[in-house]
Amino acid sequence: MEQDNQDSILDENIFLPDFCGIRMVFTVVVVSELLAIAILLTTSIEQSLSWDRLGVLSLFIQWIALCSIGILCVSRKWLIRLNDTLAGYLSYVIVLLVTVIVSELAYWSMFYIGLIDSLQSHVDFILRNLGISAILSAITLRFIYLQYQQKMHMQAHANARIQALQARIRPHFLFNSMNTIAALIRSQPENAESAVEDLSDLFRASLNKGNQLVKVADEIETAKRYIHIEQLRLGERLAVNWELEEIPDSALLPVLTLQPLLENAIYHGIEKLPQGGEIKVKGERQGDWLNIIIINPCISPDEVGQSQGNKMAVRNIDERLRITFGPPAGLKMQRETERCEVDVIFPYQEQQ
Amino acid sequence: MNILITDDEAPARTRLRSLVEELGHTVVGEAVHGEQALQLCETLQPDTILLDIRMPGMDGIETARHLMVLENPPAIIFVTAFDQHALQAFETSAVDYLLKPIRKERLEASLEKAGRLNRVQLAQVSDEQQQVRSHICTRSRNRICLVPVNKIIYFMADQKYISVVSDDGEVLIEESLKSLEEEFNERFIRVHRNALVAKDYILSMEKSPAGGHFLVLRNSDKKLEVSRRHVPGVRKIIKNLG
User: Pick from A37, A132, A139, B125: CA 20 to 30 A from residue A54's CA?
Assistant: First the structure.
């Protein structure tokens, strides 16, 4: 089962299609036959069309085509280990070699049967066939390659979308918030109401396009709404100290930069500590560069490894900052035994 | 039915309490973490415990394992908001669980059929999660006794029992040294056929006049013998410490 899985994954990611499949063989037979007819039509302006000629031509072309895909079918397991370019060229060479060999065999058999009486046209015959084969197989391989590239492109695009979404809405946060709201509806209806409002704002922000820039003031507002929801759940265990006076409100940041970092600070820090702790969010300005620092208590790294999801969220934010502003914008992580710090570094840039 | 609620979040506990009471059962207590849940289970003897999985310190699954040392352990129903790995483990080992926000009908059904978990099920759940315990749990003089793993200096096998020596003293447990070695191989090293030692507590290795090797340990006067085949491994660790 495992092996099967791996094979199918391999199949997805290489550009040479499976030549052994029944559909592939059928397509090749049909296309070869069409080619035989096309050649017959072009060459027979002086000569009359004859079934005999079509028969011989078809036989010849089918031999080349079927031998080629036969060899490609068998050698595919080696070809797929090479990189795409090399595999492409090797397949090309295989088809050309098959053409030469089949042409050679065809020529000599025609000679012995007596269809051809002199050897003068030998080289000419081989070169012509080679020429036709070279052009047609180049076009075919190019076609296959473009198709493959398009498929890869679509896959990569879809994956990127999924990753972006996953980094933003953690199911854990959603279900916990819903549970909190369910609990508050009876005992503290006002708080439940405001939690629903905050949650809606947060999700609206997360529906924004990937790299959209928002004012820092709005981004901080979103972060505070998030903290408000978590505060209801964690109560006294969560304290947040905001020191963001140095950051100008009009500076721009990619949407949802701060909230996922605060979520990390809670998920991997505050929530793991029975007595909770304080998250410090501090802003610093050095000339044209701004720095928002998030510091939280956390348990020592040897006790619990960081989860994959967390790493991905952080990497996404770092990448978005770098793509938007260029280095040295980005994230800087520091981890001491019981203290985690992440710095958001970005330039002071206003809306034009 | 007497029920103990365990969750680190106050709103979650409030909601569980009201649901349980609406169903006509009694909430005998609320615990905010695993350690407290163990103590309350011992004193209050609930029939069933509703156990949140994600809690600071000792999590729900480890708590469930430790509950097995009780003479009369309660039935366990796990509760979680979202935890893919745990859910998979529960499915394969047929352990009952509830998803937050909890539905009253689901809770009612679970409480009705809640039975005791067996060791096999629990072992399966923790194995699938490759979980390492944060505490060793045992009963001494009829009281539950929790030893934090990071305070343990060494495990010493002695015929039927294993003695666990920690900063807080010594207790006896009934487990195999081999399984302890497998579970805690990050933290402990085998130094002898009968002993596992915490790497953090090793200070140095001394040679006796007779040619044997002995370990000098932090917070312990006992000098543990190192058998010859384990000397290179221990030496490597001491080198890494310095």
Answer: A139
- Confirm or reject contact between A86 and chain B (CB < 8 A): no
Domain A171-347 sits in CATH at: 3.30.565.10
Of the candidates B14, B57, B101, which has its C-beta nearest A178's C-beta?
B101
- Domains annotated on chain B, with CATH: 2-128 (3.40.50.2300), 147-241 (2.40.50.1020)
Question: Mean pLDDT over all residues of chain A?
Answer: 83
Task: Tell how strand B75-80 and strand B188-192 pair up.
Answer: unpaired
Q: How many CB pairs under 8 A join A and B?
A: 56
CATH 3.30.565.10 residue spans of chain A: 171-347
pTM for the model: 0.64
Convert the pLDDT of each residue in A191-226 to its tens digit.
Answer: 999 999 999 988 888 776 655 788 999 999 999 999
CB contact under 8 A, B9 and A233: yes
ipTM given for this complex: 0.74
Residue type, B122: L
Give the chain B residue nearest A298 (alpha carbons).
B56
Where b means 16+ CB within 10 Å and e means fewer, B218-233 reads eebeeebebeeebeee
d(CA B95, CA A70): 53
- Taking only residues 242 to 271 of chain A, the set having a beta carbon closer than 8 angstroms to any beta carbon of chain B reads 271
Is any Cβ of chain B less than 8 angstroms from the Cβ of A184?
yes
- A10 confidence band (pLDDT: 50, 70, 90): very low
Which residues 185-244 of A are in CB contact (within 8 Å) with B? Answer: 186-187, 232-235, 237
Question: B135 contacts in A (CB within 8 Å)?
Answer: none
pLDDT at residue A6 is higher than 50: no
User: What are the pLDDT digits (tens) for B186-238?
Assistant: 899 999 999 999 998 998 888 888 888 989 998 888 888 899 889 888 888 88
Q: Among the residues of chain B, which ranges form H helices?
A: 10-22, 34-44, 60-67, 84-93, 104-113, 119-128, 177-183, 231-241
